[in-house]
Every structure is written in structure tokens, then in C-alpha cells.
């Protein structure tokens, strides 16, 4: 692990993770590697103006839970889940794609969401990548998760930032211990000529500890673009070829039903003060789905597909 990353991890762990109330930790190795735990759930700032859990909070709870177990000893022997402490000594795990599935339970105000139970499992191991899955459950309902996230992580050399094969011992130990025959694939999408365009400048609050844009900021920008289009249509209904006409499914009622499915491809990185364009559009046959491409000077940085409940 590089010096900068080591310092950042130590600071983050000291300031936050060591005080996180994670309980009921247990691990099973068969039929697949799975870690179970309980964490504090959704606090009051995790809900949006419609009273729904906001997607940024869902993403960050998932991400922090994953990172917590990268370095958290599971017992007195110092063992870590999936030997993350060993493989991360000389490489990064870069998230290239992710897929969130939300249940209607997540948006039901009568379903308690504090605390919540997590299931973190291995899904697939390739030569230079792995797929994992993390699901969260209400303490009162164990039959269906509130939400599930799958991640495709690529092993990257610390110095060259190029893909690097996972160690042979890791592949020998964990291949076949996941629940998927192949890794997560989020397909590229082709941006059409006519879209709703929303320019943004990356701000400091959009970045993470490495000063790159936070993985959840892209979703916030897309949501802001969708609501920007909605506001413009409410002031002046879209007609003809106006840019807001390219989001025909936008209504406050539709957006208030909550996000059902979110797929993201992380293609490149962006930094503070860089100017980006967020392009959002819909397909005629998919009124509840929004497609988005975040670009810098026509270079694709991130692509998203966002579906709302009916």
C-alpha cells in the first residue's frame, strides 16, 4: 500500500471506523464465503425531501461496510475476510462497475431500519478481478433485503495503475467460493444526439480522501440534472427540440416512488475544479428509466442507468 494511502487509511480508521458499532460478526466458508454483521442503520440525514432514503446514503453505507472489513480482524488470530489485508499491501482494488437493487421495503416507513443486518459475500474471482455482494436487512424481516449491491473490483498495480493479476494463492483459495459463474458486467450505453445537458464543476465536497470524485457524486449530479429538467418543465412545458423535452417521464410523482435499480460504469476519474457535462435522456419504451453519461470534453468518465418504481 502506498505511503499516501497508508496515511489516509490510518487517519480514517482512527477518526471513524474504530468507533463504528459493528456487532454480531460471523463468517462462513461454505458453500460460499459470507460475512454477517450488524451496524447502525439509516440516521435522519439519510432521507430526502420526499421522506425516502437517499441513494447517496445507501451507496456510502454499502461502501463503508465493505471497506471496514478490508482491515478489521475477525478474531484473535488477526484473520481478515478474504485476506484483504494481504492482497491490498501491493495493489488497489478499483471499482469499475456496480449494481444496486432496492426493495420496496426500503421505502416503507413502517419497516425499521435501525439497526440493520449486513451480509457480505464473495460472488466471483477472476484472474485480475473479483465480484462481491453486500445486502442489508431490516432486523424484523429476514426474507428480503432492503437493498443489495454488487461490485466488480479490478486489481490494479499501485505504481502503474494498470490491471495486475491476483496472486496465485488467492485464486487457488477463493475461486469457486462465490455464487456467480462470471463477474458483474454493466454494459456500455450509447449517448444519443438529443439529451438534457447539465454542466457542473467538481467541488471539494464531491471528492474523496484521494482527491478524486467520490463514487456517489456522479449519482448526485445525475439526480440534480433530472430535477433541473423537471423544474424547467414546470416553469415552461418542454416543446419540440428543447433539451428538457428529452426527459418525458419526469414528474415529481414518479420520482417520489423511489429508485428501484441503479447500474454504474466507472470509466475514468475526475478531479476538483474540473468541468464536466452530465447528459441525461430516456427511451420511449422505458418511462421509469433514465440513462446518463458524465463526460469531460467528450471523454466518457462515468455512465449510469437509473430506474424508478412504477
Structure report:
The protein has 310 residues and is an alpha+beta fold. It has helices at 3-15, 55-71, 84-87, 168-174, 217-235, 252-255, and strands at residues 23-28, 34-39, 91-102, 116-125, 129-137, 147-157, 196-201, 259-266, 275-283, 286-296, 299-308. An eleven-stranded antiparallel β-sheet has the order 1-2-4-5-6-3-8-11-10-9-7, with helices on one face. A hairpin with a 2-residue loop joins strand 10 and strand 11 (299-308). The longest helix is centred in the last third of the chain and has 19 residues, at 217-235. It is globular. The mean pLDDT is 90.
- How many beta-strand runs? 11
Largest sheet: 11 strands, antiparallel
Fraction in beta strands: 25-35%
- Spatial strand order of the main sheet: 1-2-4-5-6-3-8-11-10-9-7
**C-alpha termini separation:** 45 Å
Put simply, the count of helices is 6
What structural class is derived from the secondary structure elements? alpha+beta
Mean pLDDT, rounded to whole units?
90
Sequence stretches where pLDDT stays below 50 over 5 or more residues: none
Shape type? globular
Instruction: Determine the fraction of residues in helical runs and give it as a percent range.
Output: 10-25%
Signal peptide: 1-21
Domain Acyl-ACP thioesterase-like C-terminal: 199-230
Keywords: Signal
Pfam family, one: Acyl-ACP_TE_C
Amino acid at each position: 500500500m502506498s505511503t499516501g494511502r497508508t496515511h489516509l487509511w490510518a487517519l480514517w480508521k482512527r477518526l471513524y471506523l474504530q468507533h463504528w458499532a459493528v456487532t454480531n460478526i460471523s463468517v462462513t466458508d461454505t458453500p460460499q464465503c459470507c460475512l454477517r454483521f450488524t451496524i447502525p442503520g439509516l440516521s435522519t440525514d439519510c432521507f430526502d425531501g420526499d421522506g425516502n432514503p437517499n441513494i447517496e446514503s445507501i451507496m456510502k453505507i454499502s461502501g463503508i461496510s465493505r471497506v471496514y472489513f478490508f482491515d478489521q480482524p475477525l478474531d484473535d488470530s488477526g484473520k481478515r475476510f478474504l485476506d484483504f489485508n494481504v492482497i491490498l499491501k501491493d495493489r488497489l482494488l478499483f471499482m469499475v462497475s456496480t449494481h444496486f437493487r432496492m426493495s420496496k421495503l426500503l421505502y416503507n416507513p413502517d419497516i425499521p431500519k435501525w439497526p440493520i443486518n449486513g451480509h457480505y459475500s464473495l460472488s466471483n474471482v477472476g484472474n485480475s478481478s473479483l465480484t462481491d455482494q453486500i445486502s442489508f436487512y431490516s432486523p424484523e424481516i429476514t426474507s428480503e433485503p432492503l437493498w443489495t449491491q454488487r461490485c466488480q473490483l479490478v486489481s490494479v498495480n499501485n505504481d502503474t495503475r494498470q490491471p495486475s493479476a491476483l496472486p496465485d494463492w488467492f485464486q487457488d483459495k477463493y475461486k469457486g467460493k462465490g455464487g456467480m459463474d462470471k463477474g458483474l458486467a454493466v454494459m456500455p450505453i450509447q449517448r444519443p444526439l438529443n439529451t438534457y445537458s447539465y454542466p457542473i464543476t467538481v467541488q471539494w465536497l464531491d471528492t474523496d480522501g484521494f482527491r478524486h470524485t467520490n463514487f456517489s457524486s456522479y449519482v448526485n449530479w445525475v439526480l440534480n440534472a433530472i430535477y433541473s429538467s423537471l423544474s424547467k418543465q414546470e416553469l415552461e412545458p418542454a416543446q419540440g427540440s428543447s433539451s428538457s423535452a428529452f426527459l418525458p417521464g419526469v414528474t415529481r410523482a414518479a420520482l417520489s416512488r423511489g429508485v428501484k435499480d441503479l447500474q454504474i460504469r466507472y470509466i475514468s476519474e475526475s478531479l476538483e475544479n474540473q468541468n464536466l457535462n452530465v447528459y441525461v435522456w430516456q427511451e420511449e419504451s422505458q418511462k421509469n428509466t433514465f440513462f446518463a453519461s458524465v463526460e469531460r470534453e467528450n471523454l466518457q468518465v462515468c455512465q449510469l442507468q437509473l430506474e424508478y418504481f412504477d
